[in-house]
Amino acid sequence: MKKFSTAAALHVLLALAASIGSIGVVQTASAEPAARMPSSASCGFLPNAPDQHKVVRGDTLWGISGQFLKNPWCWPQVWGMNRQQIHNPHWIYPGQIVYFDRAAGRLRLGSPKGDGMDGNGGTEKLSPQVRSNGLGSDAISTIPAGLIAPFLSQPLIIEDGQMANAPHIVAAAEGRVNLGRGDKAYVQGDLADGTSFQVFRPGEAINDPVTKKVIAHEAKYLGTMKLVRPGHTSDEASTFTVVDAKEEMGIGDLLVASPLAPVLNYVPHPPATDTQARIASIYGGVENAGQNQIVTINQGSADNIDVGTVLQLYRAGELIADPISKKTIKLPDEQYGTLFIFRVFNHISYGLIMEVRDTVDVGDIARSPE
């Protein structure tokens, strides 16, 4: 199957060049603990890796790293990244060139031959531009925004009665039952000085494939509302207007303050500890999923999963009877794909399916890369 290209690996490659120039496998002396890495054998260079690659608009780190490395998620080991660097990447821009120094076993970041050359074989040690206020319009994003943007703020995972005291719609103007774009609504509850809100309705339960217990609910996103007039007393409703409606809203639907604009640059890395999670649900309620689709796993921040975590997908091996000994034998788990975690809650996380050779089913294993 063709490799899926996300910008997650491109920005590590050039990000590290910003701080350490051109390097190969580096041992950092920082007090920051090193990220847990897979074996060096799995993170080697491909024998047919190209001599160079020019970064162009639309490139992704995942795709570029896959041209050079056996596994695109191996940037932390190849570049000697520590945890602080993983969580604070720089931004990368088109026009830069990735050079593969085969003799040294290194990758170098440079620019086309021209002004500012340092005379070292047509490469210049460049520092990618850093945009402190967010991603520049020309920067290479980590993951294509169109695939995951709706999932960064919607749907919402509700755990442990989080929304028990959330503001809610108590009435609609002119006695309406359902609300659409431009309609006026009345809301009761603590707004915490917020003025822009998303509207949700409690949705389907997500069950742990192992314990069968409910671990969370996935709330259905309905649209957005803005505050027109706050209530002057605790028992007076606040007045809102529906800005947009994906579905009709109604009495009892819940409000959550709109999140800040998400940062779409994530660095891929293995989990900090050995992880063996399970696919808990497939978004959209379908039975199985394929490449570029969204799933949840039954682990989250409480289990040391964070944004950018890369897991390998496995189909659990069957139990069979040995025809000779008659004993029950378990066949090996079969690895068939990769999952990239991009949104994390306490006990559940959203992941984007990357490279797969088979369908993804609820209950499949998602574990640390080998």
UniProtKB/TrEMBL annotation:
Residues 1-31 form the signal peptide. SUPFAM superfamilies: LysM domain. The keyword Transcription regulation does not apply. Residues 51-100 form the LysM domain. Keywords: Signal. InterPro entries: Bact_Kbp (IPR052196), LysM (IPR018392), LysM_dom_sf (IPR036779). PROSITE patterns: LYSM. Pfam families: LysM (PF01476). The keyword Signal applies. PANTHER family: PHAGE-LIKE ELEMENT PBSX PROTEIN XKDP, POTASSIUM BINDING PROTEIN KBP. This is LysM peptidoglycan-binding domain-containing protein.
